């Protein structure tokens, strides 16, 4: 009985956290790895398009740099599955 209760508790504990899923450059999608699973990002300029997983820190740094250049409209971060 104890073992069953412990097993159920562990399954519930582990299954509550789901990884984020983001679009990737080849028009597919992938689960985000730990450390880069805060959000999805999309960056597009002439001839270059990047999509994938990123951390909040990365998003903030890139957005700040692009705002200084005046080109922040080309960069987007979002927090839901496949939002990029």
Main structural class: alpha+beta
Read across the widest sheet, the strand sequence of neighbours is 4-3-5
Uncertain segments are: 1-16
CATH superfamily: CD59
Q: Whole-number radius of gyration?
A: 17 Å
Number of strands: 5
CATH-defined architecture: Ribbon
Largest sheet: 3 strands, antiparallel
Q: Could you tell me how far the N terminus lies from the C terminus, measured between alpha carbons in angstroms?
A: 46 Å
What order do the SSEs take from the amino end to the carboxyl end, as H and E?
Answer: HEEEEHE
What's the number of helices? 2
Mean pLDDT: 82
State the domain count.
1
Molecular shape: globular
Strand content: 25-35%
> Percent of residues in helical segments?
25-40%
CATH topology group: CD59
CATH class: Mainly Beta
Structural account:
With 84 residues, this protein is of the alpha+beta class. The protein is built from two helices and five strands. The protein has a single domain, classed as CD59, CATH 2.10.60. The strands form two sheets. A three-stranded antiparallel beta sheet has the order 4-3-5, covered by helices on one side. Strands 1-2 form a two-stranded antiparallel ribbon. A hairpin with a 2-residue loop joins β3 and β4 (48-54). It is globular. It starts with a helix and ends in a 6-residue tail after the last strand. Residues 1-16 have low confidence and may be disordered. This is Plethodontid modulating factor. Keywords: Signal. Residues 1-19 form the signal peptide. InterPro entries: Snake_toxin-like_sf.
